[in-house]
Every structure is written in structure tokens, then in C-alpha cells.
Automatic annotation (TrEMBL):
Pathway: Mycotoxin biosynthesis. The chain crosses the membrane at residues 56-75. GO terms for molecular function: oxidoreductase activity. GO terms for biological process: mycotoxin biosynthetic process. Belongs to the ustYa family. This is Tat pathway signal sequence. It comes from Aspergillus niger ATCC 13496. The keyword Transmembrane helix applies. Pfam families: UstYa. Keywords: Membrane, Oxidoreductase, Transmembrane, Transmembrane helix.
Amino acid sequence: MEAMLPTPNNWDENSDKDIESVSPFTGLLNETKTKIASSPVTKTSTFFRKYADARLLFEGFLVFCLVVALISNAGSSHKTDIVDKRSFGPTLPRKPVIFGNTAGLGPDLVYHDTEMMWNKTRMQEIHRNWHSLFPQKSWSYMCSFILKAGRGYITVSAEEEEFEVLHPAFKMDNVFEQGDHYEGHIMAVYHQLHCLSILMTALGTSREEWAMLETQKVEHRAHCVEYLRQSILCSADTTLEGETGAWAKSTGWGQTHSCVDFDALTEYANKRAMWNLTERLLPDSFDPLKVPEHGEGLEDEH
């Protein structure tokens, strides 16, 4: 005999035992199905079903944890990439330059020789050549020579530049004369070049002479050593150097590097020069953090 299916009229007449047979997936079960569900085989199936559900829940939790971990790592990597790509200065054109000569890295002048190591006069001559590596401006459109201009000190507008101006400008008063005022930044490349030129001129200094130097000058040179160490590691030129032929007298010469275009660098700095130094020098003890009193010496270390 077929079991009588419940109808809307007799739903309320079902006993409490029928309520247990209600499933959100199958609806209201009839009495026959309830009896089948209570059989040993059905109980075993129910046990395995519960075990499978628990295992599925556990595996789902593991997958969720894995997804969260992957998203977290991806977010951290993304943030690192953003930091690595941030620019705190202008991005300038680059070009290949062969080390070992002056082509591509400033005017064709002598920037070193062995004589400068023991001849003070020769050292001064070569040091003057280094001045040409700093941003220049023509003294006259009719002249063929150039004189010092901003020496890497520039003024920029954070709103107009494509890079992030991370630190506020130096504020400098009484640099050349009482009452003058300047605000600007110095491009790190020129700070580095300045430090190297200072160390170069100190190569022939004896220990006795070092002992006689003013404390400020000794500290200045010590600063330059550490500043250049950090600058080299920061720039981290990863060019792979190899065999370049018999012409190279020293390791490193003849190697081709990808370098910032020197002309583009000079043009950028000249357009934004904070001051014009074509007819005057910075005081020898000039420091943008501590401007010297008016009237101090003008020995050109900068």
C-alpha cells in the first residue's frame, strides 16, 4: 500500500517524530522514509556523511587560511615594489659610457694623474678641472669658456615635479652677505662629487698636517668617506665587468656602464639653479645646516 503523502490540510496532524524527518534539502519526509532512515545501513551512511561534512569544513578552513596568507604576502610584496619604484629626484635619460676616458662623463679634461699625488701645484690644477663637472652657465654667449653657476643647489616646486620631494628645502640666511636668504635642495650626485674632490685634495696630507687641521675640516673629510660609502652602495651599479682587451691598464677601464646622460643632468641643474656662482665662491666652511658668519674665509672647497 502506498504511503499517504501529506497535504496542506493534514500537515498540522503530523506527530512530533515526523518533525525529526524534516530536512532543508528534502522537505517533509513521509513515515516510510523515516523508517528507512533509522535502519543500520542508513545510520552508517549518516555517520560517514557527518565525517565527510566535518572533513570538508576543516579543509575549507585550511584553504581559507592559505588564501589569507597569500593575499597578505601579495600585499606586502606590492608595497615593497611601490617603495622600490618611488622616485625622490628627477629621472633623466641614460646612455652607455665606457669607463677609462672622459667621454660622456664631463668635458674632455684631465681629472687625475700620478703627479698630483706628490705635487701640490699639479693637484690644484687638476682640482680646478673638477669644477667643470658641476653645473655651469656661460659667462657670455660670445665666450667659449664656462664658469661655475649653481654647483648643484636647485629650487624645485613639489606641485610641478613628477617625483616626490620628500624633505623640505634648506633655509639659508647670510650666506654671501648680511640679510640674504636662499631656500633649496642640493642634488645628491653633486654632494657626492664634492666629497670626492675634497678627499682627492687631501691625498698628499701627512699625518702631521692632519693633526694641525681644524676639527671642522677633519670632521668634514671623515663625513665624506662615509657619505661616499653609503652612496656607492645605494646606487649599486650592477654592471658585469669582464675582459676588455690589452688597452686597459687597470681593472674597470674599458667596461661599458649605463650612465645618466651628463648633459641632461647639467641642463636640469642649470635650469633650476638656486643661485649664480659665476662671479663668487661659497665660503670654505659653508654648510647648509649651519651658515657661517659673514666675513669668513673664501677658500674654495665646494
